[in-house]
C-alpha cells in the first residue's frame, strides 16, 4: 500500500531505526517519502508448494485478481515544539 499523500513535513524515525551521527542520512522519512505496509500470506509459503498457497501468493495476467482485506491504525506524533496535531492514518 505505497502512499505519498503529501505529508506536511518529515516524519522522525524510531530511535532504533536509521543511521546515527551521519548528517548525510537524516533520521526521518522525507516529506515525499513513502510508508509501505506489505501483507504476507503464509511466511515462507513461496518455498513450500506442498502447503497449497501458490494461488494466493502470485498473481498475473489471466488469473484471478488479488483481493485482500484488513484494518489497522497508525498515529504519528510530531516532535516536541513542532506545531500542528498528530497525524492519524
UniProtKB/TrEMBL annotation:
Superkingdom assignment: Eukaryota
Compositional bias segments (type: Polar residues): 1-18
Skewed-composition ranges (Basic and acidic residues): 80-89
Region called Disordered, residue ranges: 1-24, 60-89
Name recorded for this polypeptide: Uncharacterized protein
Amino acid at each position: 500500500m505505497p502512499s505519498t499523500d503529501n505529508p506536511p513535513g518529515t516524519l522522525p524515525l524510531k530511535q532504533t531505526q536509521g543511521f546515527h551521527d551521519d548528517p548525510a542520512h537524516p533520521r526521518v522519512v522525507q516529506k515525499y517519502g513513502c510508508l509501505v505496509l506489505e501483507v504476507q500470506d503464509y511466511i515462507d509459503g513461496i518455498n513450500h508448494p506442498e502447503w497449497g498457497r501458490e494461488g494466493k501468493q502470485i498473481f498475473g495476467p489471466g488469473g484471478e485478481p488479488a483481493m485482500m482485506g484488513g484494518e489497522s491504525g497508525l498515529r504519528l506524533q510530531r516532535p516536541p515544539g513542532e506545531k500542528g496535531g498528530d497525524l492519524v492514518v
